[in-house]
Specification:
Elements: H1 5-15, H2 24-35, H3 40-60, E1 75-80, E2 86-91, H4 92-114, H5 122-138, H6 149-157
Antiparallel strand pairs: 1-2
Helix pairs in contact: 1-3, 3-4
């Protein structure tokens, strides 16, 4: 089965697959994964996971609709009651860290469903540059390895 283009685009967005910064092999791998989903159960699970990623991403926007389009202060204290004097504090930086962690967890789950790397995750983003560098070096014209055994043999015979 094949996912529709909008869900494919959402999957690529949540997994960080920008065509200009992803190695061609990994881009082909995600295209193949999105075009060859095995059955309707898997499709439903992938769509469900994309929804979870959407919801977690909304929560990382601390100035968005969920916060009435207001930029939150770094810390807010509310004093309630005459005698009790309860102070509740909210630190938006901690909240943002928590929701960013949840978002990365959900994108990791989506990557596991599709069996592809998650380039949104900073720990896996270095994998992109390792692969990109390796593909770039192999794409250069000429032999893949200049230190071949025959060259070493000729160098020792000339002495």
């Amino acid at each position: 089965m094949q996912l529709d283009e909008f869900i494919k685009s959402k999957c690529k967005w949540h997994l960080g697959y920008n065509q200009t910064s992803i190695p061609a092999g990994d881009l082909a791998r995600i295209e193949e994964a999105l075009d060859n989903v095995q059955d309707s159960f898997w499709v439903s699970k992938i769509i469900e996971q994309v929804g979870r990623c959407d919801e977690a991403e909304k929560r990382t926007d601390m100035t968005g609709i969920l916060n009435n389009n207001i930029t939150p202060a770094g810390r807010r204290e509310n004093i309630a009651g005459d005698v009790d004097r309860t102070i509740s504090t909210t630190d938006y930086t901690d909240t943002l860290k928590t929701w960013t962690g949840i978002y990365l967890y959900e994108t990791d789950r989506l990557a596991q469903h599709l069996y592809v790397p998650n380039y949104r995750n900073p720990e896996q983003a270095r994998y992109r540059f390792n692969r990109e560098g390796a593909e770039f070096i192999q794409a250069l014209p000429g032999p893949a390895d200049v230190a071949v055994g025959t060259r070493l043999m000729f160098a020792t015979e000339l002495r």
